[in-house]
Amino acid sequence: MPRVDFHSQVGSRLNYCCRLTRKVLSLSPLGQALKQVIVIIPQVELGQLDSLLWSFSKDDFLPHCQIDDELAIASPILLTSSYNQMLFDQVPHADVLIHMGSQPLTEIVELANRFERVVEIVSTNELDLIAGRERFKHYRSLGLELTNYDQKGAA
Question: What is the span of the domain harbouring residue 45?
Answer without folding.
Answer: 3-94+117-150
